[in-house]
């Protein structure tokens, strides 16, 4: 019987090794280990054996069953793995094909630049102030030391709606409004926004454009503070290596007034086509708030002083990114927007 | 303002400074020099030649062969093509080796004849056509003055000169004269300027001219009379000066008035005395009065304008332009010369209303220096007598008075230093201010400055701070930051805007910024609020940009039109910006600036060609964007079908928040989009951006540990019933256990009657306190079914 069992074992193990699917293994299991299988049969016939033989044969039979069982399970793991491998191999794809990207929109370039400027000045303790784009002559001009018939009004030909109402020509009326509302208290604001001038649109002029303006009012505010502030801004915006230069100029609402140049960020000051060989690029106008402007807004100009600065956002964007035509900002051409 | 360096040299010594150096110094001190023209930069070897002989060229009809004395031992032979060349003329010769703009003169053979140089026109020397005499427009220039062969022509024409172009800001009108520029340059170079003295030699006869002022717009008027003059072409020196400063010479009298205007900044006018008579009355014009100015234009005046009259008729528009009726012409033999002080505002208005600007008006309107009114008159009279002959009658006819006193400013050294953030010594300030010709008294910290009338821009101590700073130089300025700390933050409104922008960009829309001004028709195209009045510009540049928008949609449609026309058919844009709503018919108040957010999509919303998927933009794509936005901003919107003239009547919804309309979403009316914007199918939305703001503060809701149960309900009901109506009924009927309703199927077609449709909703129930019992869900669900049956007569589908 021992021989019989061992033959059965060898036969079953051979079949286990040959099986390549779960079904074949299952068949082997049923055939050899099932209730009607030969081993069960051997065990069933043990009654005929002598009491001495019975435990010996029983042991052998159980050992054979155990070996087959173990081998079967071992083999099943391998077969399952192979089947999975085969299945996954069939599922293989070309991973270099393009994905299905989610379309993400872009912020307008002028917006990006505005946000950047806002963030820099918030870091310097400024908050954002805004005002109407359709403005009273009073705030746009008169409270900024530009009475009616002031020759400087020539500098900014305006879109009037009525004699007293116009499209604001700069963001400066926000200064006047904020000062009036602040009732003599210190101020530190940044005012971005759209402004309008009576210009024909061409590569360098736009009847609508964006400005950002800053105003600081307090005790002991000086030109030196203005210079330090603008230096901090310029280094953040255009790079640590940038320097600034102040040139005397004129604005009716500041005295003294300056134009501010930044050392050319393309050539570093050696001279190139961006800076017109001068090494410097004009980027903004600034000055100490004119005492009349402070007084019109009910500030005591003997105790309080302030500085203000203003710049064109299009100009900054054009310089920073090399854009050559201001109209690009307003046609919103996909081929333009996509680049930023 | 153009400044000839050669002329400037008469008042300030600038020989040691090149034009460019001078320009840099002036710019650094506050007046921007916009350009420096070196007049002889491209010219040399050009001399006076005297034409000795002239013969026809043997081979060419239009050429002459001349011999010309150019001051050398032997005359040279020059072939000349100019029709006006003749024997005896003194001409301009570019010698062999000479340079002219773009040309180098070489010995040449013209049709076989040797030519050693070229006889030139003024144009070939770089003169503009307007400076060239009528009869020499097509030929060469001939000198009528005494010149000698071989003389340097550039010297004769005053062209060894550099011209600085000053870009003057409105406050520096004092530099609209050579005197003013001389003061400024002397201050910069730290020298003293010198000016010519004027001695009038008067005849024994006294002028009979009388002046009367009948208007306050003229505070002072003076006139001198000059007899026996001869009108002629001006001498070279005078013409050279005018041309260098951009003014066309006319005749000796007019040229002198222009010369003195440039020199002193005081505009003058010469009347023909015989045409004028002895009476001068300055008054306001009468309504409808007509008058022909020197430019031969008939002008209709109004009472805001100041005129000079001969007692009856106008003879000049005060400070702007003279009249044709008293013009100085070739036959004039005596003149009355005017010098006056007209109110800047009056001149400015007149010149504006008539659209007439002149060298005179541009100076008067900024205020001339009162101290130069009589000085300029005497200077001009003297020069006219010198250049045009004639005698100056005794006496100056005058009326009114001039404000000649210096203006005093009380400042302090500490104030100026404080304002600048610098530490400049009082004595240094004194020196700087004195260099500009101001009177300065320094006593400890006190700085008392007397400002002469020519510097009307210096009024207050802050003005002095600027004068000190610009001469001292800003390079010496140190940097600091305001000492006090300050709260820097982004206000809520701006945070909200940034939030909307991020969400829409995340949803695939790119930001557009478009013009606020559009055409009147487009301005109102997508806003149907009936109480709005268009806000129109008084003087638009074009109709297309004449009116303020009341909707962002037309601007976005223009963006789409632009891009679709350039083969970009799939677009998704948004804009966040103001619309301008005017409800005040009088237009006397500011319009409401309402911030809207609008979106536009056209073509495919999504496309992955290699994967064979694409989503075409339709109403629901656009609405989905609005829903996403609302969801993220925690506001709950409802939608109702609406008809708007510019929108598709069946594919547009009004958007409500808490029962109030805040905008719309839908397809632009295909007729409109096609015809006006060339777009077939375009979807848009526009809602009040600031309304999209949840009023409630966010509070954390505990996440329930208990499982939920989902039941579906499918009903067939009348086709006119909307999904939102059904959803409302479900929500009300289900009670508090209902957590979510989701429409997951809409069906019409087979097995459903034509006037009906089928909706299938999935309902999720949950009790946050305990595990749901099957029965309570069944009860709630049964209530839903019954409500649908009773409200819509709905039929339950299996």
UniProtKB/TrEMBL annotation, chain A:
Binds 2 magnesium ions per tetramer. Residues 109-319 form the Aminoacyl-transfer RNA synthetases class-II family profile domain. It catalyses: tRNA(Phe) + L-phenylalanine + ATP = L-phenylalanyl-tRNA(Phe) + AMP + diphosphate + H(+). CDD domains: PheRS_alpha_core (cd00496). It comes from the Bacteria. One of its GO terms (molecular function) is ligase activity. PANTHER family: PHENYLALANINE--TRNA LIGASE, MITOCHONDRIAL, PHENYLALANYL-TRNA SYNTHETASE. This is Phenylalanine--tRNA ligase alpha subunit.
UniProtKB/TrEMBL annotation, chain B:
This is Phenylalanine--tRNA ligase beta subunit. Its main location: cytoplasm. Residues 404-479 form the B5 domain. It is an enzyme of class 6 (ligase). PROSITE patterns: B5 (PS51483), FDX_ACB (PS51447), TRBD (PS50886). It is found in: Cytoplasm. Residues 40-154 form the TRNA-binding domain. Mg(2+) binds at residues 457, 463, 466-467. Keywords: Aminoacyl-tRNA synthetase, ATP-binding, Cytoplasm, Ligase, Magnesium, Metal-binding, Nucleotide-binding, Protein biosynthesis, RNA-binding, tRNA-binding. It comes from the Bacteria. Its EC number is 6.1.1.20. Its cofactor is Mg(2+). Belongs to the phenylalanyl-tRNA synthetase beta subunit family. Type 1 subfamily. It catalyses: tRNA(Phe) + L-phenylalanine + ATP = L-phenylalanyl-tRNA(Phe) + AMP + diphosphate + H(+). Binds 2 magnesium ions per tetramer. The gene is pheT. Residues 704-797 form the FDX-ACB domain. GO terms for molecular function: ligase activity. Gene3D superfamilies: 3.30.56.10, Bira Bifunctional Protein, Domain 2, Ferrodoxin-fold anticodon-binding domain, Nucleic acid-binding proteins, Phenylalanyl-trna Synthetase, Chain B, domain 3. Tetramer of two alpha and two beta subunits. PANTHER family: PHENYLALANINE--TRNA LIGASE BETA SUBUNIT, PHENYLALANYL-TRNA SYNTHETASE BETA CHAIN AND LEUCINE-RICH REPEAT-CONTAINING PROTEIN 47.
């Amino acid at each position: 019987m021992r021989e019989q069992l061992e033959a059965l074992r060898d036969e079953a193990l051979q079949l286990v090794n040959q099986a390549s699917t779960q079904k074949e293994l299952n068949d082997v299991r049923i055939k050899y280990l099932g209730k009607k299988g030969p081993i069960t049969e051997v065990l069933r016939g043990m009654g005929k054996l002598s009491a001495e033989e019975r435990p010996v044969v029983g042991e052998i039979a159980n050992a054979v069953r155990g070996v087959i069982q173990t081998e079967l399970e071992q083999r099943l793991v391998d077969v399952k793995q192979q089947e999975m491998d085969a299945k996954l191999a069939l599922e293989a794809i070309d991973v270099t094909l393009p994905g299905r990207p989610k379309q993400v929109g872009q912020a307008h370039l002028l917006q990006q630049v505005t946000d950047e400027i806002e963030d820099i000045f918030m870091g310097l303790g400024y908050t954002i102030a805004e005002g109407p784009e359709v403005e009273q002559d009073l705030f746009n001009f008169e409270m900024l030391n530009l009475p009616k018939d002031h020759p400087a009004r020539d500098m900014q030909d305006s879109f009037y709606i009525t004699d007293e109402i116009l499209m604001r020509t700069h963001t400066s009326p926000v200064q006047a409004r904020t000062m009036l509302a602040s009732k003599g208290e210190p101020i530190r604001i940044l005012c971005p926004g759209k402004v309008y001038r009576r210009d024909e649109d061409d590569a360098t002029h736009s009847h609508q454009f964006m400005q950002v303006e800053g105003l600081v009012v307090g005790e002991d505010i000086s030109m030196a503070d203005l210079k330090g502030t603008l230096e901090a801004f310029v280094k953040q915006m255009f790079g640590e290596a940038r320097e600034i230069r102040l040139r005397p100029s004129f604005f009716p609402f500041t005295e003294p007034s300056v134009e501010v140049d930044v050392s050319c960020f393309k050539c570093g000051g050696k001279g190139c086509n961006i800076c017109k060989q001068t090494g410097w690029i004009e980027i903004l106008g600034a000055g100490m708030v004119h005492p009349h402007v402070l007084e019109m807004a009910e500030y005591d100009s003997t105790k309080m002083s302030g500085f203000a600065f203003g710049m064109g956002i299009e100009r900054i964007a054009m310089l920073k990114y090399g854009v050559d035509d201001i109209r690009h900002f307003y046609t919103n051409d996909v081929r333009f927007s996509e680049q930023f | 303002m153009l400044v000839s360096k050669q002329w400037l040299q008469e008042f300030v010594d600038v020989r040691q400074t090149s034009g460019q150096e001078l320009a840099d110094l002036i710019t650094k001190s506050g007046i921007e020099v916009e350009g420096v023209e070196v007049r002889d930069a491209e010219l040399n070897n050009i001399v006076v030649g005297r034409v000795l002989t002239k013969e026809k060229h043997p081979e060419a009809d239009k050429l002459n062969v001349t011999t010309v004395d150019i001051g050398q031992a032997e005359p040279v032979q020059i072939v000349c093509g100019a029709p006006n060349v003749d024997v005896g003329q003194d001409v301009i010769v570019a010698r062999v080796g000479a340079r002219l703009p773009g040309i180098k003169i070489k010995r040449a053979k013209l049709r076989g004849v040797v030519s050693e140089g070229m006889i030139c026109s003024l144009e070939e020397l770089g003169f503009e056509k307007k400076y060239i005499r009528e009869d020499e427009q097509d030929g060469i220039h001939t000198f009528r003055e005494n010149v000698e062969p071989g003389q340097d022509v550039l010297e004769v024409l005053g062209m060894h000169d550099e011209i600085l172009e000053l870009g003057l800001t409105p406050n520096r009108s004092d530099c609209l004269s050579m005197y003013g520029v001389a003061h400024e340059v002397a201050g910069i170079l730290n020298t003293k300027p010198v000016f010519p003295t004027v001695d009038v030699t008067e005849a024994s006869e006294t002028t009979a001219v009388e002046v009367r002022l009948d208007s306050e717009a003229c505070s002072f008027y003076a006139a001198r009379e000059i007899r026996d003059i001869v009108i002629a072409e001006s001498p070279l020196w005078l013409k050279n000066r005018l041309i260098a400063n951009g003014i066309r010479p006319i005749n000796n009298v007019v040229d002198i008035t222009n010369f003195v205007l440039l020199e002193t900044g005081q505009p003058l006018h010469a009347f023909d005395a015989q045409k004028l008579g002895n009476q001068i009355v300055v008054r306001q014009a009468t309504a409808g009065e007509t008058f022909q100015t020197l430019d031969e234009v008939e002008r209709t005046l109004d009472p805001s304008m100041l005129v000079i009259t001969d007692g009856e008729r106008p003879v000049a528009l005060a400070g702007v332009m003279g009249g044709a009726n008293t013009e100085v012409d070739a036959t004039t033999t005596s003149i009355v010369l005017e010098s006056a002080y007209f109110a800047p505002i009056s001149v400015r208005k007149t010149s504006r209303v008539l659209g007439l600007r002149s060298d005179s008006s541009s100076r008067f309107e900024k205020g001339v220096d009162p101290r130069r009114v009589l000085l300029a008159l005497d200077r001009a009279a003297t020069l006219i007598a010198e250049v045009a002959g004639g005698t100056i009658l005794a006496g100056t006819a005058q009326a009114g008075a001039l404000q000649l006193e210096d203006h005093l400013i009380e400042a302090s050294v500490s104030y100026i230093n404080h304002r600048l953030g610098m530490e400049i010594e009082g004595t240094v300030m004194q020196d700087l201010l004195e260099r500009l010709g101001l009177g300065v008294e320094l006593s400890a910290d006190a700085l008392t400055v007397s400002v002469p009338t020519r510097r009307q821009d210096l009024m207050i101590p802050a003005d002095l701070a600027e004068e000190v700073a610009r001469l001292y130089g800003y390079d010496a300025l140190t940097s600091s930051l305001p000492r006090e700390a300050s709260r820097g933050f982004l206000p809520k409104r701006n945070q909200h805007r940034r939030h909307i922008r991020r969400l829409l960009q995340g949803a695939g829309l790119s930001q557009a910024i478009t013009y606020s001004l559009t055409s009147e028709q487009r301005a109102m195209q997508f806003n149907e609020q009936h109480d709005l009045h268009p806000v129109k510009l008084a003087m638009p540049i074009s109709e297309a940009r004449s009116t303020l928008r009341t909707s962002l949609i037309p601007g976005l449609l223009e963006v789409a039109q632009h891009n679709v026309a350039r083969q970009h058919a799939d677009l998704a844009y948004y804009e966040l910006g103001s619309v301008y709503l005017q409800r005040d018919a009088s237009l006397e108040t500011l319009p409401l600036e309402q911030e809207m957010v609008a979106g536009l999509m056209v073509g495919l919303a999504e496309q992955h060609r290699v994967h064979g998927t694409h989503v075409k933009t339709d109403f629901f794509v656009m609405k989905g964007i609005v829903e996403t936005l609302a969801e993220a901003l925690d506001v709950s919107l409802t939608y109702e079908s609406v008809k708007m003239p510019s929108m598709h009547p069946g594919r547009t919804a009004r958007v409500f928040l808490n029962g109030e309309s805040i905008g719309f979403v839908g397809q632009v009316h295909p007729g409109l989009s096609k015809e006006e914007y060339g777009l077939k199918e375009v979807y848009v939305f526009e809602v009040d951006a600031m309304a999209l703001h949840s009023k409630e503060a966010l509070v954390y809701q505990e996440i329930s540990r208990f499982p939920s149960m989902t039941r579906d309900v499918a009903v067939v009901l009348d086709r006119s019933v909307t999904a939102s109506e059904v959803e409302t009924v479900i929500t009300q009927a289900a009670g508090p256990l209902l957590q979510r309703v989701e429409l997951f199927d809409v069906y019409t077609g087979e097995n459903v009657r034509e006037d009906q449709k089928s909706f299938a909703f999935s309902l999720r129930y949950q009790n946050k306190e305990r595990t749901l019992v099957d029965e309570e869900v069944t009860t709630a669900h049964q209530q839903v079914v019954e409500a649908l049956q009773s409200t819509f007569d709905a039929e339950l589908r299996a």
